[in-house]
Specification:
173 residues; alpha+beta; Arc Repressor Mutant, subunit A; two-stranded antiparallel sheet; 8 helices
């Protein structure tokens, strides 16, 4: 990729990506060092902040272009997105997974004291959680954990940004 400045090339790559791009992936695609990419991203961020409706953000372990906040209402009105809020039950299942991952459905059920299979299936469909492996016990139950989409949805860079929480199993009360 030799045409255009590094900043223009970074802008073009970030424009077409569907998910946050890491420094490594940008450096590899442009055949430059990660330091050069970091400098280019700083210049791009500065340039975008001075003009236009787009800004550069760091989210979910990478970089992505997004609409500036002052244009949010216009964009929302134009797209008319279907509001897909998470029910209280889904948020409860997700919270258990977030703080105890990797975790099996049986462990989620034991923590909540109620069947969670529907909630887990719904969260997988929404790409907020995924299968991350199998527990090496009889039956080899599926282990679930969060996804990059989870980080993106909740505007987190990584799981370390979550507030600390102590989860107690219902039978421990």
């Amino acid at each position: 990729m030799s045409s255009g400045t590094l900043v223009d090339q970074l802008e073009a790559l970030l424009f077409v990506t569907e998910s946050p791009a890491t420094l490594e992936s940008l450096a590899s695609a442009l055949r430059v060092t990660m330091g050069q990419v970091e400098q280019g991203l700083e210049l791009l961020e500065q340039r975008l902040s001075e003009r236009g409706a787009i800004r550069l953000i760091k989210i979910a372990g990478g970089y992505q272009l997004c609409t500036k906040e002052e244009y949010a209402v216009a964009v929302a009105d134009f797209l008319q997105p279907q509001r897909r809020t998470l029910s209280r039950a889904l948020m409860e299942v997700l919270a258990v997974i977030v703080y105890r991952q990797p975790i099996t459905i049986a462990e989620i059920d034991a923590t909540r004291g109620i069947a969670s299979e529907y909630g887990v299936r719904s969260l997988v469909e929404r790409r907020l959680i995924r299968e991350v492996g199998r527990r090496p016990t009889p039956g080899r139950p599926v282990l679930y954990g969060t996804t990059q989409q989870f980080l993106h949805h909740f505007k987190l860079n990584d799981l370390k940004e979550l507030p600390p929480v102590e989860i107690k199993a219902k039978d421990a009360e």
